[in-house]
């Protein structure tokens, strides 16, 4: 069977579908709200050995639940990237969490928020080590 007559319609469909997805994705990942100066609270977690897949998924969900704190503007949850090994890179952590606040006052309110207190209560036993870096973002 000759598929050549179907090539152009399929190609056009693919182009339109891709453009539609890109446009939707651009809207959902608009970073302008976080490029304004504020405060970044970056947390690196080294977890206990032998946690189950369910425990890890619960931990990830717990990190995402921190968005419920009223002063949190954005939440980024990550794992170490597979970047080449260099002397200045430490990718020994299990998870990273970046929370974006308008200012230090927002961070301070977050520290005593029910969402943060529940996260610590529910997941603290999973922590082997935690390291926090807080920084004011410059214009």
TrEMBL record:
Keywords: Signal. Residues 39-135 form the Stress-response A/B barrel domain. InterPro entries: Dabb, Dimeric_a/b-barrel. Residues 1-23 form the signal peptide. The keyword Signal applies. The keyword Transferase does not apply. Gene3D superfamilies: 3.30.70.100. This is Dabb family protein.
